[in-house]
Amino acid sequence: MKTHFKTIVISDVHLGTKGAKAKEVAHFLKQYTCENLILNGDIIDGWQLRKSGSWKRKHTRFFNRMLKMIERDNTKVFYLRGNHDDFLDQILPLQIGNVSIQTDMIYESNGKKFFVTHGDIFDSITTNLRWIAYLGDVGYTFLLWLNRLVNYHRRKKGLPYYSLSQFIKGKVKSAVSYIDQYEEELAKMAKAKGCDGIICGHIHKAENRDINGVTYLNSGDWVETMSALVEDHDGTWQLIYYNEINFKKMSSEKTVSLETLKDYKTVAFTKPAEDLNYPNFLL
Predict the structure, then answer these.
(1) Measured by CB atoms within 10 angstroms of the end CB, which terminus of the chain is less buried, N or C?
(2) Do residues 115 and 36 lie in contact, with contact meaning Cβ atoms separated by under 8 Å?
């Protein structure tokens, strides 16, 4: 029996780019069932597709998995546009069966309200200085290419995965300042909307913490971190990291609860260090 959650939130898959972990995210979703699946922006990378990106069969499989969740489990899908899939602005809002495509939403669960948004609207760089965002995107794409090259040689030597881009961004003091301001501003926005929490993505830094009485939840990304937010039926939120899950052990068990999910983590992957606070320049 698959693990069943009330809600799963993923963001920043960036389908259409070489860095997208399309197979991994499809495999991840195959392990679970849920009532609500929130795709919180940058699922498709329109920026890269307009430049040098390409659409692969594995990218289509992600949506095939989503359709199976709708068909088999009657999952409701909420696709919120991000800045990289801003082409959706031409059709928003749109409701097709169990799929709702919109800009943002209020999610209510267990007596609490959460404002759900990708997060780019709070970023002055992407909204006011778009050319800088594109320039940053080029730099980040190069880092991901270099990261693949470095890890290719590390694998040949039997060394574990190493995120070069996270290391570089973690050393930039201005990045740390940016991420702190980003999280605080989002928390303020949630409070202004009368919500108990904020659910976002955009900066590729998974997080679950309290900011001045507001629950701040960031689902991370599926380019490097490979993380998702999940909510059980008691309203408890938790971050799950793909590379920390022992899928073989999970498949041998009949049921898996959110409380015991951490027992299925492997030692092959180390969660990013807390000091790696950075803004992602896939903005």
Answers:
(1) N
(2) no
The distance of Cα 81 from the centroid of its chain, to the nearest Å, equals 13
- 26 vs 64: CA distance, rounded Å: 9
Question: pLDDT tens-digit profile of 35-57?
Answer: 999 999 999 999 889 887 789 99
Q: Are strands 207-211 and 214-218 parallel, antiparallel or unpaired?
A: antiparallel
Is residue 108 situated within a structural domain? yes
For 2, the 3-state DSSP assignment is coil
Q: Which domain holds residue 244?
A: 3-264
H-run or E-run covering 237? strand 237-241
Alpha carbon 89 to its chain centroid, in Å, reads 20
Looking at residue 145, its amino acid is W
Phi, then psi, of 190 in degrees rounded to 5: -60, -45
Give the other-Cβ count within 10 Å of 149's Cβ: 11
Q: Report yes or no: 114 and 106 within 8 Å, Cβ to Cβ.
A: yes
Q: Where do the H-state alpha helices sit in 74-195?
A: 124-128, 130-156, 164-170, 173-192
Query: Under DSSP, is residue 221 helix (H, G, I), strand (E, B) or coil?
Result: coil
Pairing of strands 32-40, 76-80: parallel
pTM for this entry: 0.75
Coarse DSSP helix, strand, coil percentages of the chain, rounded to the nearest 5 percent: 40, 25, 35
Contact predicate 203/179, CB 8 Å? yes
pLDDT, tens only, 198-230: 999 998 889 999 999 999 999 999 988 899 999
Q: Considering its fold, how many domains does the chain have in total?
A: 1
**Rounded to a whole number, what is the largest CA-CA distance in the chain?**
53
Tell me which of 257 and 190 has the higher pLDDT. 190
Provide the CATH number for the domain around residue 183: 3.60.21.10
